[in-house]
Amino acid sequence: MSSDLILRVIAKIIIPFILLFAVYVQFHGEYGPGGGFQAGVIAAAAVVFYGLIWGLDRAREIAPDWLVESMVAAGVLLYACVGLAGILLGGNYLDYFVLGATPVDGQHRGIFWVEVGVGITVAGVMLKIFYMFADRRA
Prior knowledge:
This protein is mainly α and 138 residues long. The protein has one domain. 78% of the residues lie in helices and 0% in strands. α1 (5-28) runs antiparallel to α2 and α2 crosses α3 (56-62). The chain is elongated.
């Protein structure tokens, strides 16, 4: 598909908007539909789309395997650290109320960081699945 001029031009126009939408879904997740899972899938879809147009090797230049595997672990680690922060601040595991000056502020802060962790992990897992299937030989 990399030789198709129309696909390349459309992809160059659309991919930044896909990533912007992923950021919007990530930050809008605590107030409405959306959140880390959806944002992670949308962000990974942008890289998958890039890989389908320009090839797997070019996609791996943008998101190399070491980065994708690190994303999987980093998101889970961030999620766990939010939980441990609740314990260290005198609450229970994943008790968001103690993470801010007021319980509402703490909940917003805790949910935000948990959703960021979920988004990072989901994007990493989706890209790893794509890379594994794309590497398969028939």
